[in-house]
Amino acid sequence: MSAESIQSSAAHGRQGRRSVPVARGGPLLVGYLLATVFVVGTLCAWQENVRPKLYVTLADKEYLRFQGNESTNDFFKLVLRDPNSNNLLVGARNIVYNLSIYDLAETTRLSWYSSDDDIKMCIVKGKDEDLCQNYIRVLAIPAQGSLLSCGTNAFRPLCRTYSINGNNYTVETEKPGQAMCPYDPTHNSTAVFVDNELYSGTVADFSGLDPIIYREHLQTEQYDSLSLNAPNFVGSFTQGDFVYFFFRETAVEFINCGKAIFSRVARVCKWDKGGPNRLKNRWTSYLKSRLNCSMPGDFPFYFDEIQSTSNLVEGRYGHANSKLIYGVFSTAPNAIAGSAICAFSLQEISDTFEGNFKEQSGLNSNWLPVNPLNVPDPRPGSCHNDSRTLPDLTLNFKKTHSLMDETVPAFFGSPILTRVSTMYRFTAIAVDPQIKTPGGKTYDVIFVGTDHGKILKTVNAESADSNKKVTSVVIEEIDALQTNEPIRTLEIVRTTQYDTPKDGSYDDGKLIIVTDTTVLAIKLHRCSSEKITSCSECVALQDPYCAWDKIVGKCRSHGAPRWSEENVFYQSVATGDHAACPSGKMAKDANVVERQGYRDLEYDPQRPFRDQPADKIQFNSENYNDKGPQITPDLINAQYTVETLVMAVLAGAIFALLVGFITGYFCGRRCHKDEDDNLPYPDTEYEYFEQRQNVNRIQAEPKLLPQVEEVTYAEPVLLPQPSSQNKMQHSPKNTLRKPMGHHHGVNSETLFQFQPDNYNNARDNYRGRDNFGTLRSHQVYL
């Protein structure tokens, strides 16, 4: 190779290397950008934690309290309204309390203690003495003057029917409570009394491993994960021909992908009489479906664990009438702490049960919908005049196909309210349905209890105009408990008629709050508070209970005279603004104000503390005075939302990466050291130096197999020509090897015959040459 070619190739190699700059930070930058897009998309899809309009800390005179047995924990859990009087029946430990709605005063009590033998046997079985008591978990009023009560009875459930005569209770019947009442008082169970029959969802054994949905003589399949798989029952009600149960359970259809908890709704027919023969004590109409409470999107975020349900409410939503059931849901205990409120239409629940079934064809197969052509007739899960006459094909299909394929969607298209908080989760719910506002619109007012002792009062501001949209308004956050006890039950009760007016408003109901140790009763609203002094402040609350009375000049509650007259009472639940109200201190759009200055509620320094005396209401303002609440954007402009902080941090990180990348690139270009400077002799044009600069020299790979080196020598050797008389003998035709035995002379050798090793003494070191003197190829193994 010439010197010019060596120089040209070396120069070309150096030029090629310098002309391709490598962006070493590129993959890292792309990763950060993708993460940013994901987080931003998630934040945009997620509903914000809406701030309450009012923070309420109740003084002692603002609520009614019933303490029960102060020496021991009563474990209050059950509240039943006596329809024949203004009394509440509260189930507790060894006692059923009868309380007055007006003041929660105890009018009478029913004591029912476990026998000493039952308590001793319970302790012998390894249970704690506190649990070996009689905890009342089922209460029902079969008829006027009668009471049905079931208790755990030291892990030996019993049910009794009492006759009521004044303040006296007399036992009429007693029977075992297995499958009607749980053994363990901590188990979640439900029961509803329908047509003189008790329908229950509980466990039927001491260990709690036999879940059951039961009515006398009928039950679900025993130890069958396809029917019930470790359920926690939270509610039940009846409507039409069916009884509905709500629970959460381990999802059998997800078992091939791991363990997950799904929320369910199940139903049974009230006229079910069981099947023939061996199925005579089994439900023939039992079906279940999944409840879908999730944030919508391409990748929905699910709130999978239902915690509580409301009563069935009926009302007008948008421009159609619907029957709804509200429920509170949460994430798993070890997941991101989140809670949500979802509503479900009874019609959509029924449509799901009329849809496709779901099945698993093999043990390792996916769960897929069943072809409608494979569903037998009559259809499994329906009500029939006499289920004992159903064919075996229908009964066998129902036994293995109790799960429906379609899920029940949220009624408004998304949760009504979501909460992401490390401090509390939703535990209980109560709904005051169809509160009528001036102008005729109606709204459902929702009260939600938490495991931290707080109560949220909320409403969907879009529900009167649309059944497809959600605008969450949190009216109040109420802090009524002295301790952070979990709220077990919420119940809205009203007296048989309105009480006499007090300060321009009517006491039209109470919210009953039940914890393990306390029963509280508070007002449903605080419309008549002295802190609310202007029309704009009253309207901005967006509380369906409250409206501004322009004649009296006060904020009053619904039930007041002339309440339905829109020209007398000013209110706007949808916007929080009314054109007739003069501009005041409160922002026109309270939701906008809250989004501008959201702070996590648990760490709000402006919230009242428990030891702060006398103040009834704390508004979203830095300081409030006797003139009323002041909710203005100026008070919270210095605060930032969580989303804004996250975006600021991500933007700062990306900006720093870009600056570092650009700075490093230009510094590398300007401070680049030419590779020619590394040559020891720049003027020497040897390819050796070019090879030395090659940092990507290929390393010799280890020899896994013996390498074969083939050595071939092609050195011609002239041989003496044969005589003319032998030309014919050495013609190509005669070069073929002759058979042995004919020609044994010297000339019998062919042209390609090998010569002996001593041929040509000058070349003794060459072996195996042919007649041309060429050494035949031989292999040398290294």
Automatic annotation (TrEMBL):
Keyword Transcription part of the UniProt annotation: no
Coiled-coil zones: none
Gene Ontology process terms (BP): axon guidance; positive regulation of cell migration; semaphorin-plexin signaling pathway
Residues passing through the membrane, by range: 21-43, 645-667
Domain Sema: 53-524
GO cellular component terms given for this protein: plasma membrane
Span list, region Disordered: 721-742
Protein's UniProt name: Semaphorin-1A
